[in-house]
Amino acid sequence: LNTPESSLDAAAADARIRRVEQVVSVRRHFRSRTVLLVGAVTIAYFAVMGAVTDGRAEPFSMIMTLFPVVAVVVLAGIWGQHRGLESRRLVTLEYRLAGIFAVLVCVAGVLATVLPHPWPAALAGVLPAVVCLLGAWQLAHR
Amino acid sequence: VSEHPRVLLDEVIHSPVRLSIIASLARIGEIDFAALREIVDVSDSLLSKHLRQLEERGYVRVRKGSVARRARTWLTLTDDGSTAFRHYRAVLAEILDPSAAAPTTPSEQVAPQPSR
To answer: What's the N-to-C CA distance of chain B in angstroms?
Structure first.
């Protein structure tokens, strides 16, 4: 098989296919895990936000204000560095998820302010987190 | 005299870069040019060259489009490409483990011819 036209032998070709499949699998799961992590961090964020608004964690109010900005910048950086398996369907899905997530974060923010306690605030955070859960599943299986 | 199965390997697929392209597309379905370039780990020009060969052979479909006003090139494996890759893998399996793999007979060769 090692002819001038082809530098692959059968074992090398087989190994190459397996390596490519592994790279694809890692990329497929990296984005879905990142989205899952965003969901978990969102619930934790709203729980702490509830504690801040009811006065238990007052010193963290400045951190809580800055955190979403920092999180968006970090996430955008990670998203840019680790390109996914970008099909038209996945790109459309990611745009939709980001839009729905942003709206639900705003809704959860209002709820967390109205219900100033860690547990109800964390429950409000579940709203956008569910979008992350569904998104992670879709990203992992499409 | 029976031929060694290696002669049945599709030479269009049997190149390091083209094999990586086809294996990626077979696993993913559709992918953006830039994402594929990162997986295959080659330059834009080299990827374009090999994609052109695969497109000419009818194994890969190239579609141009845009997302958020940015031009994108989407790549998919055609039915012929999928069939050729399945056949290629079957031949590889036969070469690597002749006792386990089903013999590849000419009647089973649904893929395009191995070389041009």
So the answer is: 23
- CB neighbour burial string for B77-116, b if at least 16 within 10 angstroms, e if fewer: bbebbbbbbebbbbbbbbbeeeeebeebeeeebebbebee
Chain B residues with CB inside 8 Å of A4's CB? none
pTM greater than 0.80 (yes/no): no
Q: Which residue has the tokens 């729980």?
A: A47
Say which DSSP state A78 is in.
H
Partners of residue A87 in chain B, C-beta under 8 Å: 28-32, 74
The structure tokens listed for A114 are: 């109205």
Q: Mean pLDDT of residues grouped by 10 in chain B (116 residues)?
A: 74 93 93 91 94 96 84 93 95 84 49 46
Write down the ipTM of this complex: 0.78
